[in-house]
Amino acid sequence: MEIYLPIAEQSMNVFVLLGLGGAAGLLAGMFGVGGGFLATPLLIFVGIPPAVAVASQANQVVANSISSLQVHWRRGNVDLRMGLVLLLGGMIGSSAGVSLFTYLKNIGQIDFVIAVLYVVMLSTIGVLMLVESARTYIRRRRNPEAPRGKLHTHYLVHRLPLKLRFYKSKLYISALLPIGIGFVIGVLSAVLGVGGGFVLVPAMIYILGMPTAVVIGTSNFQILFVAANVTFLQAATNGTVDVVLALLLILGGVVGAPIGSRLAAKLPGVVLRGLMSVLILVVAVELLTELLRTPSSLYSLGFRQVMP
């Protein structure tokens, strides 16, 4: 069953798009990410123009985050104060990111930049998370009663001013640190069409030192509002939001997100981090393969019809 996407200017199978939305929603519920780090590359793989995939995916990130956030909010797994501080940086960063996206689109480099950024960031984060998860799992298998080691180290940045107490996360750190992280996530959300959770979740665990259970709900809180801001700005500035594509992704995501949230409640944090790292690496390898693959036609001739 084919449906025409007006902004992408092509027809796509409805069930394929619904399946991609469902997979992204499942990831949103399980790992506290928007799911865009998987859905956006897959949309590009099936033929959606990268600029349209990035802008339209932000809509689906909003829907996934709402569905997943409701579950985690009821369970009390949202640090509202931390979420608001992250959101401050995220709103500034997403606005700046849309301006950068517009510039890259105008000079014709947006497709290449999107692909390269995905490969570099997903590979780095995936390897780091996989190594840490494997070490933690092996250590606990050898000595299950051993106390859990610290997930983060108090670097120099933790001595920054403007310290706040985050009671839910049991932290006392500078507000500048989560604001900076939120800013970076906002830029990534605008340029890559993702919620930024694949960067935000590891940063909240390993840099801020937040408990994994609280991280998932809090990240969804920040992702929700940042993705909404990106969607509005992309539609108003670049006109690359395909509403039909976004609605199909949202329908699939609304089904997948609650399922992912329930699965997350049944799995240990170390297992969740390990699964997420594997998924990230799989997507990175596929993107790298696409970048290195020789195109079927090295040269093409274009023409412009001259109206009489």
TrEMBL record:
Family annotation (InterPro entries): TM_pro_TauE-like, TSUP/Inactive_protease-like
Pfam families: TauE (PF01925)
Transmembrane segments: 12-33, 39-62, 83-104, 110-131, 171-192, 204-228, 240-259, 271-289
Primary localization: membrane
Protein localization: Cell membrane; Membrane
Keywords: Cell membrane, Membrane, Transmembrane, Transmembrane helix
Membrane topology (UniProt): Multi-pass membrane protein
Domain of life of the organism encoding this protein: Bacteria
Signal sequence annotation: none
Identification of the protein by name: Probable membrane transporter protein
Species of provenance: Reyranella soli
